[in-house]
Amino acid sequence: MTKLKIIRTSELSNMGREFGVYLDGQKIGTISNGEIKEFDVPAGRHQLQAKIDWCSSNDLDFKLNEDEIVSFTISGNKYANYPLLFMGVLLILIFTFKIKFLVWVCIPLICMSIYFLTIGRNQYLKIRES
């Protein structure tokens, strides 16, 4: 039987949210944090994409032969997690120790967060063949 195996990495950001799995533009299911799912799909050429809210992954084209199992890993962009984490730490330092110059360090982190929510929203998730 022809199957598509999807592995979602376990990660802190997006932990409580499910990713939508799309095959050829149609939603075939969702996958939770750290979960592995298999989907029955027809043989042939396909396009795979993952989405969460208004953010998504790159489109990945692949070919699936009869009685073949193809495996893909979906994860959040590794650089998308850092800005919020660093901003949280910096804000604690700023308000606890009154280190005002650290406010300037937050500006690039805010810009990076805005990038992933706007222009870079189609690179927020990553799909790669396992």
Give a verbal description of the structure.
- By secondary structure, the chain is of the alpha+beta class.
- The chain has one domain (3-129): Immunoglobulin-like (Sandwich), CATH 2.60.40.
- Helix content is 24%, strand content 39%.
- It has 2 helices and 9 strands.
- The strands form 2 sheets. Strands 2, 3, 5, 6 and 7 form a 5-stranded antiparallel sheet that branches.
- β2 and β3 (26-31) form a beta hairpin.
- The longest helix is centred in the C-terminal third of the chain and has 16 residues, at 82-97.
- The chain is elongated.
Unreliable stretches (pLDDT < 50, length at least 5) are none
Q: Nearest-angstrom radius of gyration?
A: 18 Å
Domains (count):
1
CATH structural architecture: Sandwich
Molecular shape:
elongated
Oligomer: single chain
Instruction: Specify the biggest β-sheet.
Output: 5 strands, antiparallel
